[in-house]
């Protein structure tokens, strides 16, 4: 079975769409998904951005919210505009680094995305993260480790790995070193993984 790396920041609304659709599409294509949460903020900073490009460029931001309404309706995905955008995804990401990469990691990731983009809850808070862990069948040990970790060595390593793959946005899909950026490129990435 071929592998597809799914790189995302929990604060990316288009990554939310990918998280909700990737597993069935990958199963149909015979491709295994490797979930790779990471922090996009440091990469944006290197590009000279101090905020999401959807906030820095108002026309792009207006388009984002309209497009998300259309896409979530088309895909049958629950959607509520977050109270704050982008929300801080650091705690959710640090917690994810302490979860084994089996089926519980995708379940946790989907719960975090739904909290932020369907339930209008703040994934920056420990209570929300603890509930997302419970929804994935996990106790709060990954959260406790993330809180105790302080500096976030694991998340820094993941950002470095994203840089090595030339990732500059989310969601991104990597197949045998080849980058596909954007939710609309999921089909092409799956096709490439299937061919390989």
UniProtKB/TrEMBL annotation:
Gene3D superfamilies: Glutaredoxin (3.40.30.10)
A Pfam family per the record: DSBA
Keyword 4Fe-4S: no
Chemical reaction(s) catalysed: 2-hydroxychromene-2-carboxylate = (3E)-4-(2-hydroxyphenyl)-2-oxobut-3-enoate
Chain coiled-coil ranges: none
Class of the enzyme per the UniProt entry, highest EC level: isomerase
EC number: 5.99.1.4
GO molecular function: isomerase activity
Similarity-based family: Belongs to the GST superfamily. NadH family.
PANTHER family in the cross-refs: GLUTATHIONE S-TRANSFERASE KAPPA, GLUTATHIONE S-TRANSFERASE KAPPA 1
The protein, known as: 2-hydroxychromene-2-carboxylate isomerase
Organism expressing this protein natively: Alloalcanivorax venustensis ISO4
Lineage, broadest ranks: Bacteria, Pseudomonadati, Pseudomonadota, Gammaproteobacteria, Oceanospirillales
């Amino acid at each position: 079975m071929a592998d597809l790396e799914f790189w995302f920041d929990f604060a990316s609304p288009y990554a939310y769409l990918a998280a909700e659709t990737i597993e069935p599409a990958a199963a149909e294509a015979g491709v295994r998904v490797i979930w790779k949460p990471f922090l996009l903020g440091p990469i944006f900073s290197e590009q000279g951005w101090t905020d999401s490009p959807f906030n820095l460029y108002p026309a792009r931001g207006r388009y984002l919210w309209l497009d998300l309404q259309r896409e979530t309706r088309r895909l049958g995905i629950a959607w509520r505009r977050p109270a704050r955008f982008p929300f801080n995804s650091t705690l959710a990401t640090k917690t994810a680094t302490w979860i084994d990469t089996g089926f519980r990691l995708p379940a946790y990731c989907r719960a975090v995305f739904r909290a932020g983009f369907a339930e209008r809850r703040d994934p920056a808070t420990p209570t929300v993260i603890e509930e997302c862990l419970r929804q994935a069948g996990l106790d709060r040990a990954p959260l406790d480790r993330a809180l105790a970790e302080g500096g976030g060595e694991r998340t820094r390593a993941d950002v470095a790995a994203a840089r090595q793959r030339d990732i500059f946005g989310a969601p991104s899909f990597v197949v045998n070193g080849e980058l596909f950026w954007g939710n609309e490129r999921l089909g092409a990435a799956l096709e490439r993984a299937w061919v390989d």
